Amino acid sequence: MNMMDMFGKMKEVQSRMKDAQETLRTVTDTGESGAGMVRVTVNGLKNVLSVEIDVDLMKPDDREMLQDLIVAATNIAMQNVEVKAREHLRKATEGLLPNIPGLNLDGLMS
């Protein structure tokens, strides 16, 4: 592969990465805690889209436990969507660059 081809590929990679990053809002995942009593859905941009709480947890005495369950469900959803977002970006740039040992494009996602 000559240098001009490589630069052309890099521009294509940048363009594809930009497009893929813009579509990360459509990549979603839901984390659950408390045996599904708390559900948090996030997108690939790491925005919380919704929080669902079982009505049985809506008691003043359970406030601290509910807060812990929301945090746990949010963290699970964030971890899961991170994996999905990486896969989404990998697919968007698949076949554009040769397999170069040590080349890590993970920083392009942030």
From TrEMBL:
Please give an example of a GO cellular component term from this record. bacterial nucleoid
Subunit structure of this chain's protein: Homodimer.
- Record flagged with keyword Endoplasmic reticulum: no
Keyword DNA-binding belongs to the record: yes
Q: Which organism is it from?
A: Spirosoma montaniterrae
Q: What keywords tag this UniProt record?
A: Cytoplasm, DNA-binding
Where is the major localization of this protein? cytoplasm
Gene3D superfamilies given in the database record: Nucleoid-associated protein YbaB-like domain (3.30.1310.10)
Superkingdom field: Bacteria
Q: Where in the cell is it found?
A: Cytoplasm, Nucleoid
Protein family membership: Belongs to the YbaB/EbfC family.
List GO molecular-function terms, semicolon-separated: DNA binding
What does this protein's UniProt record list under function?
Answer: Binds to DNA and alters its conformation. May be involved in regulation of gene expression, nucleoid organization and DNA protection.
- Record's protein name: Nucleoid-associated protein AWR27_00975
